Amino acid sequence: MAKTAAKPTNGVKKTNAGATKKKASETASQAASGVKGAPAAGPLFRPLGQYIKDLSFECPRAPMMTPENDRNMDLNVGVQAVELSAERGLYEVALAIRAEAKDAAKTTVFMAELAFAGVFELQNIPSDHIDQVLHVEGASLLFPFARKIIMQTLADSGFRPPLLDPINFGALYVQSKNASNNS
Were 48 and a residue from 81, 119, 154, 170 both cysteine, which residue would form a disulfide, CB within 3.0 to 4.6 Å? Predict the structure, then answer.
């Protein structure tokens, strides 16, 4: 067995980094839970999970499909946020995506519908900002995954998937708020 010489510490006391991390996370969770004497924690927006709620694909004219350059696709995206547990700060954000392609004769070539959702934990966020955080930040985090599911479904169905551009959910949120204020 080889012996190693002890290295001098130069007066620096070694600490257990794992214990320090544990203390910091305990302090943050105490603050989030409202324990007296705990320092106030900053805002928390954390995704806890994501999942497909519903996926549907229809190709009504499968044996008689038209060439790919002979179709136009419409993409509709909706965002919905639901409170799951107020005391735990849990919310569900669901994207509803519908992609429909029609040929030159306006006949449906395919239709794909996806309901893709995620559960998010929010702590220490002012109540007047929760709706915006969920509809903008939550939707922005979910969309790349939902887009991939739609594109993969189209590819698996024999179609060349179109490029689905990113969506500015901040602009959509502002537009939606302006429309509801004008109503």
Answer: 119
